[in-house]
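User: quick one, sequence for these C-alpha cells?
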C-alpha cells in the first residue's frame, strides 16, 4: 500500500487534510511560540541591563547587553523563518477558515507584518550601533524594538482570541457580511489572553536565560558576570511567575461564561456539581472519572470564585461538541502544577535573599534554576494545548467546525514531513551557533563578528 493511501486511511471519517493539518500546525506553533517569547521579553531585559551599564558605568552589565543582543539576533533570524512558514500555513492548511474569514482577520495579520519589519530594523540598528552611536541614542533603539515585538504578538494573539470569542461580522444566507475588522481584532477576550501570553513570555525568557548562568555558576564560574546574568532575568521571571496565577484565575472565570465545554474538560467534570471539587490527575474512561484525587469545594473556588457555585458538566454539552477531554484536562493541570511550582520557587528565593541567605551558593537551588527554564517552556506548551484542544471541535467557536476549516488535500502529509525536516535543521543550527558563541565568549573573544556587519570604528564620544 502506498504511503499516501495509508495516511488517508489513518484519518478515515474526516477530511483527508484534517489530521496532517492539525499535526503540522501544532509543531509549527509549538516551536515558534518559544521564539516569539524572546521577541516579546528579551528587548526589555536587555534594556534594563544596558541602562544599568550606562548609569553605573558598569562594564559587566554592558558586556551582558552586548552578548544578549547577539543572541537575540540569532533567535530573531530563526524566528523569521518559522513565522514565515506559519503565515503560509494559515492559507494552505485551513482554507475553510481563511477563505471565509480572511476579510475579518486581515487587519491584525497586516499589523503583525509591519511590526515584524519595524522590530527587524531597530534590532539591526541596535546590533550594529555598538561604539558607533551616542550611548543613550543607542540604548533608545531598544524601545521601538521592544514595542514592535509586543504589538506583533498582540496581533497574533488577537486572532486566536477571536477564534475563542468571534466578533466583527455577521452571517446571512451562509455569507460573511458586515465585517468590522477593528471589532474583530479588539474582541472581548483579547486583553486577558494577551496579558496571559505576555507575562508567560517573561517567565520563559527570564528563567531560560537565568538558567544558563546558573549552569555556569554550577561549573565554578561564580563571578560578577554570572551573578548579574542570573539576577536580572530571574527578577523579571519572578514578577511574571507571581502575577500569572491571578491572570489565569480571571481567565478561568471567564471561560465559564464563554466556553463551558472547555471548562468542563479542564475540571474533568462529567456532571454538573455544586459545590464542585478540584480533581487532581485522573482521566475519563467510558464516561467515568478514574484515578483522580478530589479536593472538595476547591473547583468552585478556582473556576467560579465562589464556595458553592456549580461547575457545568459535560452532560450539559451535546456529545458531538465535546472536546478531547483527557488531553485538555491533563494539559491544563500540567500547566497549573508547573506554574505553581515556579511561583513557589521564586517566593522562596527572594524570601531567603531578604534573610541574607545566598542561594546562588546552593547547588540544589542552582540545579533547579537550570531546569526551571525548560519547565516554563513546558508550561507554555501545555497552556496552548489546553486552549486549542479545549476549543474543539470548533476552529471559530460555535461558528466554524475544524473539520470544515481544514484542507481536503491528502498531500499535506508530505508538507508536514518537510516542515519536520526544516524545523529539525533550524533547531540543530541554533544549538550549534549558540554553543559556538558561548565557547568563544568563555575563551575571551568578546567582540564576535556579526554577519554582514559594518567594520568596527572608534567609539563615538
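Assistant:
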Amino acid at each position: 500500500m502506498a504511503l499516501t493511501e495509508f495516511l488517508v486511511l489513518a484519518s478515515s471519517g474526516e477530511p483527508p487534510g484534517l489530521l496532517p493539518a492539525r499535526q503540522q500546525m501544532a509543531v509549527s506553533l509549538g516551536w515558534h511560540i518559544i521564539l516569539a517569547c524572546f521577541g516579546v521579553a528579551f528587548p526589555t531585559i536587555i534594556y534594563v541591563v544596558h541602562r544599568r551599564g550606562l548609569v553605573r558605568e558598569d562594564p559587566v552589565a554592558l558586556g551582558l547587553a552586548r552578548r544578549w543582543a547577539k543572541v537575540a539576533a540569532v533567535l530573531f533570524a530563526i524566528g523569521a523563518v518559522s513565522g514565515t512558514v506559519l503565515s503560509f500555513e494559515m492559507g494552505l492548511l485551513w482554507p475553510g477558515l481563511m477563505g471565509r474569514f480572511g476579510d475579518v482577520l486581515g487587519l491584525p495579520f497586516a499589523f503583525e507584518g509591519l511590526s515584524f519589519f519595524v522590530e527587524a530594523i531597530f534590532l539591526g540598528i541596535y546590533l550594529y550601533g555598538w561604539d558607533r552611536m551616542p550611548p543613550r541614542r543607542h540604548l533608545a533603539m531598544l524601545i521601538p524594538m521592544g514595542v514592535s515585538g509586543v504589538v506583533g504578538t498582540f496581533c497574533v494573539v488577537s486572532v486566536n482570541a477571536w477564534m475563542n470569542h468571534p466578533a466583527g461580522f455577521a452571517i446571512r444566507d451562509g455569507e460573511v457580511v458586515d465585517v468590522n475588522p477593528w471589532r474583530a481584532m479588539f474582541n472581548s477576550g483579547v486583553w486577558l489572553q494577551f496579558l496571559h501570553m505576555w507575562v508567560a513570555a517573561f517567565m520563559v525568557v527570564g528563567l531560560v536565560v537565568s538558567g544558563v548562568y546558573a549552569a555556569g555558576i554550577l561549573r565554578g564560574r561564580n563571578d560578577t558576570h554570572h551573578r548579574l546574568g542570573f539576577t536580572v532575568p530571574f527578577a523579571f521571571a519572578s514578577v511574571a511567575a507571581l502575577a500569572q496565577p491571578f491572570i489565569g484565575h480571571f481567565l478561568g472565570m471567564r471561560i465559564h461564561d464563554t466556553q463551558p465545554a472547555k471548562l468542563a474538560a479542564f475540571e474533568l467534570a462529567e456532571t454538573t456539581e455544586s459545590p464542585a471539587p478540584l480533581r487532581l490527575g485522573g482521566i475519563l474512561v467510558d464516561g467515568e472519572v478514574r484515578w483522580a484525587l478530589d479536593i472538595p469545594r476547591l473547583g468552585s473556588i478556582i473556576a467560579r470564585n465562589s464556595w458553592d457555585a456549580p461547575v457545568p458538566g459535560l452532560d450539559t454539552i451535546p456529545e458531538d461538541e465535546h472536546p478531547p477531554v483527557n488531553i485538555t484536562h491533563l494539559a491544563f493541570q500540567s500547566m497549573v502544577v508547573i506554574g505553581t511550582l515556579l511561583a513557589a520557587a521564586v517566593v522562596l528565593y527572594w524570601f531567603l535573599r531578604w534573610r541574607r541567605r545566598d542561594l546562588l551558593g546552593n547547588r540544589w537551588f542552582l540545579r533547579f534554576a537550570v531546569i526551571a527554564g525548560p519547565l516554563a517552556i513546558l508550561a507554555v506548551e501545555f497552556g496552548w494545548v489546553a486552549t486549542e484542544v479545549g476549543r474543539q471541535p470548533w476552529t471559530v467557536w460555535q461558528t466554524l467546525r475544524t473539520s470544515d476549516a481544514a484542507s481536503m488535500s491528502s498531500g499535506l502529509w508530505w508538507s508536514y514531513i518537510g516542515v519536520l525536516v526544516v524545523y529539525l535543521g533550524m533547531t540543530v543550527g541554533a544549538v550549534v551557533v549558540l554553543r559556538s558563541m558561548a565557547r568563544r565568549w568563555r575563551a575571551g573573544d568578546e567582540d564576535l563578528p556579526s554577519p554582514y556587519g559594518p567594520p568596527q570604528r572608534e567609539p563615538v564620544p
